[in-house]
């Protein structure tokens, strides 16, 4: 990784991996950005907590506001990029969010996205091209399977 240079900007975002457990298995929401398929996320505003940002971004980008945060899952991504000739150090924290199948039918994407899809794990994995996002989806899927299995036992 490059060293953080003098005057490098730091940016923090929060987002969510959104899923529902349907009759045909788990479905994950992917959003189409200009050049890739990914998840709802956005920059944490000065007065917001990470969780408040995640909730706002999910509402703004998907029109979903009746969801449940699944406790115990948190995934951090870190990367660097250049913007206007300046190095930016980016960190994004993702939580896991569950909606009902009925709620899933109410998705309306924002102007930031070109399309959306609800996909099973394997389909979603093949649609995602960014390595970090593939690893995050795998981690979320493993967590979801254990979480749903524990719920059945209660």
Classified by CATH, the class is: Alpha Beta
Counting structural domains, the number is 1
CATH superfamily descriptor: Nucleoside Triphosphate Pyrophosphohydrolase
Please name the CATH topology: Nucleoside Triphosphate Pyrophosphohydrolase
How much of the sequence lies in strands comes to 35-45%
Describe the structure.
With 154 residues, this protein is of the alpha+beta class. It has a single domain, classed as Nucleoside Triphosphate Pyrophosphohydrolase (Alpha-Beta Complex), CATH 3.90.79. Helices cover 31% and strands 37% of the residues. It has four helices and eight strands; from the N terminus they run ββββαβββαβαα. The chain has helices at 50-62, 101-104, 121-127, 131-153; strands spanning 9-22, 25-32, 37-38, 40-43, 68-69, 75-83, 86-98, 115-119. Strands 1, 2, 3, 4, 5, 6, 7 and 8 form an eight-stranded mixed beta sheet that branches. The longest helix has 23 residues, at 131-153. The protein is globular and about 55 Å long. It starts with 8 loop residues before the first strand and ends with a helix. The model has no long low-confidence stretch (mean pLDDT 92).
